[in-house]
Write a structure and sequence with these properties.
alpha+beta; Aminopeptidase; 13-stranded mixed sheet; 13 strands; globular
Length: 311
């Protein structure tokens, strides 16, 4: 076996592994990974994808990639084919990729969320590499019965494209000083939040955007939703501005998205949440969500910098 740079291989070399990955996440997370794998294949053919692959002769056994984004590296999939999981291949591959990312000129930060990882013991390797980490859960809920929207006086309206800036401001305000903001630079500024919203709404960054299930309450709260597959709707983001919190708006936003999913004939809904965000986690479990997969969010900054995690 040998480890090679992804810049040295083609989409054809990884095609069987990418096909297996697409099928795996569809079954594991109800997430249609076809478009993601197509984007990986395109990056391979353009020789623009950074990362490594483990091969045995011409056969690709596992791969991991990362993206560079204005001074930070974001680690994506860490995936091994079924016969090669749990043998240390994924962990060795991860260590090599993290070393590469740390060695990139001008890159002073690395982030990773291990939702799309088949490694069973990756958290230990992030800890050993000096990362700050917190556990997250991918939650799933069935949509058999109508969703009861609690009584409220909020004026929800369907999300429009001209709401991008307003949504970015709400998301940024809602994350100020939070654990998620410490681990993910996306929430650090209004501009980065706007880029995040644009990726969700305009570029299908997390499945196919669903305007019918997405809503905004002007200046107060927003929920952004998508379809991860033909049967699973996903709540990509739900945020409530600080002055509107603890008034039931978060529950109303989530419930409205769930009912929209159900009306469309979807069978399930999913979302991700940081376990230490107790208020949000309690809301989601009260609304019927249950854990589908445990994973973690990890972040590292080049010393002498450090990540300050809220208590």
């Amino acid at each position: 076996m040998r480890t090679r740079s992804l810049a040295e291989v083609s989409a054809r070399d990884l095609r069987p592994l990418l096909d297996e990955e697409s099928e795996y996440w569809s079954e594991e997370l109800f997430w249609d990974f076809t478009d993601v794998c197509a984007a990986v294949a395109s990056g391979l053919d353009r020789r623009s994808l950074t990362g490594r692959v483990v091969q045995d002769g011409p056969r690709s056994l596992a791969y991991c990639y990362y993206m560079l984004d204005t001074g930070r590296a974001i680690v994506g999939s860490l995936f091994a084919g079924a016969p090669f999981r749990g043998q240390g291949i994924e962990e060795a591959l991860l260590e090599a990729v993290l070393a590469d990312a740390k060695g990139c000129p001008g890159n002073d930060r690395i982030e990773c969320q291990t939702l799309f990882s088949t490694a069973l013991d990756s958290d230990r390797h992030f800890e050993r590499a000096g990362f700050s980490s917190r556990q997250r859960h991918y939650l799933l809920r069935e949509l058999r019965e109508p969703i009861q929207l609690p009584p409220h006086g909020f004026r929800l309206r369907t999300f429009r494209r001209d709401d991008l800036v307003a949504a970015a401001r709400i998301i940024h305000l809602s994350h100020a000083g939070s654990l998620d903001a410490a681990l993910n630079l996306t929430y650090g500024t209004v501009q980065s939040c706007r880029s995040f919203v644009e990726t969700l709404v305009l570029r299908a960054g997390c499945g196919r955007f669903d305007p019918e299930a997405s809503a905004i309450v002007d200046g107060a709260g927003v929920v952004l939703a998508s379809h991860l597959s033909a049967t699973n709707g996903h709540i990509c983001q739900v945020s409530v501005a600080p002055e509107a919190q603890c008034k039931g708006l978060g529950r109303v936003l989530v419930a409205s998205a769930l009912e929209a999913f159900r009306r469309q004939g979807l069978k399930t809904a999913s979302l991700s949440v940081t376990v230490d965000n107790a208020r949000a986690y309690d809301l989601y479990t009260h609304l019927g969500f249950r854990m589908r997969k445990a994973f973690s969010a990890h972040a590292w900054v080049r010393p002498p910098g450090r990540i300050e995690l809220p208590a």
